[in-house]
Structure formats: structure tokens, C-alpha cells
Design a protein that fits this description.
Layout: E1 3-4, E2 7-8, H1 9-37, H2 40-56, H3 64-82, H4 85-109, H5 115-139
Antiparallel strand pairs: 1-2
Helix pairs in contact: 1-2, 3-4
Length: 140
């Protein structure tokens, strides 16, 4: 593994991704605030910053959910370019909803077992032991 001044390239990459995500959240919030206040020029500027960041960021693997985000992004770009604030607000809301769904879906694949999962396992184990207990009672 390559190191630069004692920092592995993996750590550098991770720091870069963290910085991109931090900037993305900041720019996304600026866009939300501009749309909420009705400031179309500020929304266009914030969107331009997001677009530049998006174009320079590592590309995720393509699937139907990333294609949906791309479509949402394009719809928002079109609305902002035309200066239609109402359509831009709707496009932004759709983008936000789809991004949250994507994030939720991603976290669901990597989540640790929930208490309800453990409860089912514990109940199954309790059922098995009670079955075993009753059969051993019959043997005695």
C-alpha cells in the first residue's frame, strides 16, 4: 500500500470522500434554502456548485436507483435553467426523496441485526428448547 508522509492512500481517499460528502451536504442545503426563500439565482448558483462537485466525484456503480437520481438531477437542472421556481421546488423534493430512499436502501444492506431480529432468534431457540424439554420428559 502506498503511503505519503505516513498516511496510506486508502486514508487519503477516505478523507477525500469525506470532504466531498461534507461539501455536497453544504451545497445541497444552500440549494434547499435558496429554493425555500424563492431566490432562483442563488438556487442556480448552488446547483451549479453541486453539479461541479458531482462531475468531479468518483462515479458509483450504475443501477436503477442511480439512474433515477440522474433523471431527478436532470429535471432539476432543466427547471432551474428555465427559471421556473415551482417546478424546481418539485424537482428538488423528488431528488431529495429519492436520495433518502437510496441512502435508506444502502444502510439496510449493511445494518447489524435489530432487536426484533434477535427476538425472533431467541423465541425460536426458546421454542426449540421447550420442545426438547417436553420430549425428554416423555423419556423419563
Amino acid at each position: 500500500m502506498d503511503t505519503v508522509s505516513g498516511i496510506s492512500s486508502n486514508n487519503v481517499t477516505q478523507l477525500g470522500i469525506q470532504n466531498i460528502m461534507k461539501q455536497w451536504k453544504s451545497d445541497f442545503q444552500k440549494l434547499a434554502d435558496a429554493l425555500q426563500s424563492g431566490n432562483i439565482s442563488a438556487a442556480q448558483a448552488a446547483f451549479s456548485d453541486l453539479q461541479q462537485l458531482k462531475n468531479n466525484a468518483p462515479k458509483p456503480p450504475s443501477d436503477s436507483s442511480t439512474n433515477t437520481i440522474e433523471d431527478d438531477f436532470a429535471a432539476l437542472a432543466k427547471a432551474l435553467q428555465s427559471g421556473d421556481l415551482d417546478v424546481a421546488k418539485k424537482a428538488f423534493a423528488t431528488l431529495q426523496k429519492d436520495m433518502e430512499a437510496l441512502q435508506t436502501s444502502h444502510h439496510r444492506h449493511h445494518r447489524p441485526p435489530q432487536d426484533s431480529d434477535n427476538e425472533v432468534t431467541q423465541n425460536s431457540a426458546a421454542d426449540s428448547s421447550s420442545d426438547t424439554g417436553s420430549s425428554s420428559d416423555n423419556l423419563a
